[in-house]
Structure formats: C-alpha cells, structure tokens
Amino acid sequence: MDHRLIDLLVCPVCKGPLQLARNAAGQPQELQCPADRLGFAVRDGIPVMLESEARVLDGELASPPSAPTLG
C-alpha cells in the first residue's frame, strides 16, 4: 500500500488521521483511527472504509491525548 495514499485517507467517521497496522508478515492489515478506536480492514491492498465494516479496537491503541484544561 502506497504511503502517499495513506496520507490522503482519513477516518470516514471523524475525518481524523489513520495509522497503518501490519500483520506478522509485514503486510498491511488495517487502517486504525485512534480517536474513534475503529479498525478498517485492508483487503487485497484496498482499504474498506465503511463504518459498517469497521471493527472496534479493544485497547490495541494508546488513547488519544486529552485536551488541556483551562484553569
């Protein structure tokens, strides 16, 4: 999967950046949205960017940084 394509793709839910996750063989497995904690599968080199096809990530990513509080 071309890194330029990954840089152009955003989460279909929140429009935030995605991270590429690879399997043990180093092949692209899914694009992950840390903000929504969703994983979008990559099938035959094509990302499936449908919310209905996404899987919920269970603690696999670090939580996104929290917004600073004004005080």
UniProtKB/TrEMBL annotation:
Pfam families in the cross-refs: Trm112p (PF03966)
SUPFAM superfamilies linked to this entry: Trm112p-like
Lineage: superkingdom: Bacteria
Cross-referenced HAMAP family: UPF0434
Similarity field: Belongs to the UPF0434 family.
Protein name in the entry: UPF0434 protein AACH10_10540
Source species taxonomy: Bacteria, Pseudomonadati, Pseudomonadota, Betaproteobacteria, Burkholderiales
